[in-house]
Amino acid sequence: MASWSCTEAALPANSLPGPPTATSCWPAPPVPVKAMNRSNRLLRRPGMSALEVFASPTVEPPRRLLVRVAQRGSLLVFLAILLGFAISAPNFLSVGNISNVFAQSAMLGILALGLTCVVIGGGSNVVSGGLDLSLAANLGLCAAVYSSLNNAGFEAWQAIALTLGCGLVVGAFNGLAVVLLRLPPLLATLASMNLIAGLELVLTQNTVLATDSALLDSLASGVWLGVPALASVLLSVAAGLWLLIQHSAFGLRLYA
């Protein structure tokens, strides 16, 4: 839509009856794109981030291309690394090796998937956004709880339920600290990380708790449908989380 500029001018005293002034309007000259890019005041709407501003169609194509590359930089780096390994090791992309990689990274992958929800819901700001520094400490505490319960003679389902409950309590503690006490997630999870690490030391007496069960043996060395069990668990969790985020009301609220 074109903008117009208008001015009012006084009429002579002997003019026809009517208002003492006359209004003249003409189209205003367009604002140069470069000037808009420098200030960003005309491009930015409420709620828009800097990347969204520079990625808008009114921004110069070279800068918009750089922004798109920056947004997908991690994917490009991953593909470059994958290509490098594929060239240097011919069997790297084989089904057996890919399954082995998934199995070895299952634990960290599941933790990363959980943290993805935190980042999506809270934003990527390091101080005030979605961040959980207590993730690794929570993992160690839950492992210690499961080992202790398993060695104490609890049934497998009881040990699993209590271990999951331990993780939920830690997550609820972090959530209450952020929502009710209004602490920055960085500080809240940093404090809980040290607290959880201390609880783990008390529970394990600063020693390694060795344990064994049929469930652990099945996960460590089992094969489900030709795929290592840990890799199957990782892929199942990833697929379930994708469906939850992309095709549910929870996912819509998470992005909102």
Automatic annotation (TrEMBL):
GO terms for cellular component: plasma membrane. The keyword Transmembrane applies. It is a multi-pass membrane protein. It is found in: Cell inner membrane. This is Inner-membrane translocator. Belongs to the binding-protein-dependent transport system permease family. AraH/RbsC subfamily. InterPro entries: ABC_transp_permease. The keyword Transmembrane applies. Keywords: Cell membrane, Membrane, Transmembrane, Transmembrane helix. The chain crosses the membrane at residues 73-95, 101-121, 133-150, 156-179, 186-203, 223-245. It holds the Pfam family BPD_transp_2. One of its GO terms (molecular function) is transmembrane transporter activity.
